[in-house]
Write a structure and sequence with these properties.
7 strands; five-stranded antiparallel beta sheet
C-alpha cells in the first residue's frame, strides 16, 4: 500500500469518526423508544461503512493491535437496533464498556500510524514473517538447488531465510561448498601434474611396504587408489581449515553488523556469511588459469581479476544478506561488512607478524634494511659464498659498495648484489605491506622448493 503519511492518518481519522458516531447514537444508548425503518437502515449502513474501513485500518496497523477482532466482536453482538433495545442491563453495560475499549484501541492505532516510519514497518513485518515458519524455506533442498537460489535471486533468498533456529543447513552448505572447491582445485592440480602425483604415491607405497614395484596392473591400480585417497584427504583437511576461518569471519562480521544496527543474532550472521561465500566456487578456475599462465604466457592479471571479481561478488551477497536478515540500511550493511573484513585482516596480519617474528624476519622499527627480491641471493665474503637467502628475507643494512649492499644476517656479514635485493625504509605504516608481500614471497619460495624436490623424486622413480 503506497499511501503517504497524511493519507494514512486521514483513513484512521475517518474510521474513528464512524466508530464515534456508532457509539454515541447506538452503543452508548440505554433506551430505544423510536425504532423506525429509517433508523434501522442508518444503523446497518453505519455498520457496513465501519467494516469497509476496518479492512484498510487493519492493514495500516498490520494486525499488531488486534483491532479487527475487537470491532468484529462488538458488531456481531449488535446486529440491529431492535436487538439493542431487548438487551439486559448487563449486556448494555458490557456493550458500552467494549465500545469505549474499541475507541481507545483506535486512538492507539492512530498513534502507531503517526509514529511508525513506513520503511521501518516494512522491515519489521518482513522480519516477523521470517521469524515464523514461512511457506517457502529457501534453505530446504539439495546443495545445487540452494546454490541456484542464492545466485539467481539473492534478495528473495535472504528475505525468506529464517533468522532464528539452528544453523545445521548453513553449516552443511558451507562444508559442501568448501569441499567441492578444494577437491576441484586439487584434482585440477593432479591432472596437470599426473607424473608427479603418481611418483609421490608410488614412493609412499614403497616406503610403507605396500608395494615393491609398479610393474603389474594391480600395483598401478594401488598407486592410483593412493592418489585418490590423497586427493580426498588433502581436500577435506583444507575444507575444514577454510570452514574454521569462515566461522571466525562470521563472528567478526556479526560484530560489524551489530555495531551498525543489525537486529539478528550470531546464527543470522552465520547464514549470511555461509550462503554469501557461494562465489568461491569460481576459484576452481585458478589452477587451470595458473597452468595457462605458465604454459601459454597468459597474463597474471587474469588471476588477479578473477580473485577480485569473486571478492566483489561475495561482498555484494553479504551486504544484501545484512540488509535483509539484520534489517540494516544499505550504508549500514556496507560499513558492517567493512568492519568485519578489517577485523579479519587485522587478525591475519597479527598471525603473519607472529610467523615472521618466530623466524626472526621482521624489519627494524626504523631505518633502512635490505629486502631480498630474487629467488636466490648469495651473500659473498672475500669472493666466496657465505650464505644463500630466499625471496622475501630481511637483511640488516650496513652500507653500499659499488654494485653491492653490505649486509648482516645473524653473525654473518658480507655483501649481496643490488640486482638481487632492494633497499627499503622501515616504518610502522609500511609493516602491513611488508608482511603481505614477504609472506607471499616466502610461500612462493616454499612451493618452489617442494616442487623441485617432488620433481627430483619423480625423475628417480621407475
Amino acid at each position: 500500500m503506497r499511501w503517504s503519511k497524511q493519507e494514512q492518518l486521514a483513513r484512521v481519522e475517518r474510521f474513528a469518526s464512524l466508530w464515534e458516531r456508532l457509539f454515541n447514537l447506538y452503543l452508548n444508548e440505554e433506551q430505544f423508544e423510536d425504532i423506525s425503518p429509517a433508523r434501522e437502515n442508518d444503523f446497518l449502513s453505519l455498520q457496513g461503512s465501519i467494516m469497509q474501513e476496518l479492512a484498510v485500518v487493519t492493514e495500516l496497523e498490520e494486525g499488531r493491535l488486534a483491532l479487527v477482532d475487537e470491532v468484529s466482536s462488538v458488531i456481531n453482538e449488535a446486529v440491529s437496533v431492535h436487538q439493542l433495545k431487548t438487551q439486559s442491563d448487563f449486556q448494555v453495560r458490557r456493550r458500552k464498556e467494549r465500545g469505549r475499549q474499541v475507541a481507545d484501541l483506535i486512538a492507539n492505532v492512530k498513534k502507531f500510524v503517526a509514529e511508525r516510519d513506513a520503511e521501518t514497518r516494512k522491515q519489521e513485518k518482513e522480519r516477523d514473517v521470517r521469524l515464523s515458519r514461512p511457506f517457502w524455506d529457501p534453505e530446504k533442498g539439495r546443495f545445487g538447488t540452494i546454490l541456484v537460489r542464492v545466485v539467481s535471486s539473492p534478495v528473495r533468498f535472504f528475505s525468506a531465510i529464517r533468522v532464528a533456529g539452528e544453523a545445521k543447513k548453513a553449516n552443511a552448505f558451507l562444508l559442501t561448498l568448501l569441499s567441492i572447491l578444494m577437491i576441484g582445485c586439487v584434482v585440477t592440480l593432479v591432472a596437470f601434474n599426473t607424473r608427479t602425483a603418481r611418483a609421490i604415491s608410488y614412493n609412499a607405497a614403497v616406503e610403507s611396504g605396500i608395494l615393491t614395484s609398479d610393474a603389474s596392473p594391480g600395483a598401478k591400480i594401488v598407486v592410483w587408489v593412493i592418489v585418490a585417497m590423497g586427493v580426498v584427504m588433502v581436500s577435506l583437511a583444507a575444507a575444514i581449515v577454510a570452514a574454521i576461518l569462515a566461522h571466525l569471519l562470521t563472528l567478526l562480521m556479526h560484530v560489524g553488523f551489530k555495531l551498525l544496527g543489525g537486529k539478528g543474532d550470531v546464527v543470522a550472521s552465520h547464514k549470511v556469511v555461509a550462503f554469501g561465500l557461494t562465489p568461491l566456487l569460481l576459484l576452481m578456475l585458478l589452477p587451470f588459469l595458473g597452468y595457462l599462465t605458465r604454459e601459454v604466457a597468459l597474463p597474471p592479471l587474469v588471476l588477479a581479476m578473477l580473485a577480485g571479481a569473486v571478492a566483489c561478488y561475495i561482498a555484494v551477497l553479504h551486504v544484501v544478506g545484512a540488509t535483509r536478515v539484520h534489517s540494516t540500511s544499505l550504508p549500514g550493511g556496507i560499513l558492517g561488512w567493512l568492519v568485519g573484513v578489517i577485523l579479519f585482516g587485522a587478525i591475519a596480519l597479527a598471525g603473519l607478524w607472529l610467523w615472521h617474528y618466530s623466524a626472526g624476519q621482521l624489519p627494524p622499527s626504523s631505518g633502512s634494511y635490505v629486502y631480498v627480491t630474487a629467488k636466490q641471493a648469495r651473500m659473498l665474503k672475500e669472493n666466496r659464498v657465505v650464505r644463500t637467502f630466499s625471496k622475501g628475507e630481511v637483511l640488516t643494512f650496513l652500507g653500499e659498495t659499488g654494485d653491492f649492499y653490505e649486509v648482516k644476517s645473524g653473525k654473518d656479514e658480507g655483501r649481496v648484489k643490488k640486482s638481487d635485493a632492494r633497499l627499503r625504509e622501515a616504518s610502522v605504516w609500511s609493516l602491513p605491506i611488508f608482511l603481505t608481500e614477504s609472506s607471499a614471497a616466502r610461500a612462493e619460495a616454499l612451493i618452489d622448493r617442494l616442487s623441485r624436490e617432488i620433481k627430483k623424486e619423480a625423475g628417480e622413480s621407475p
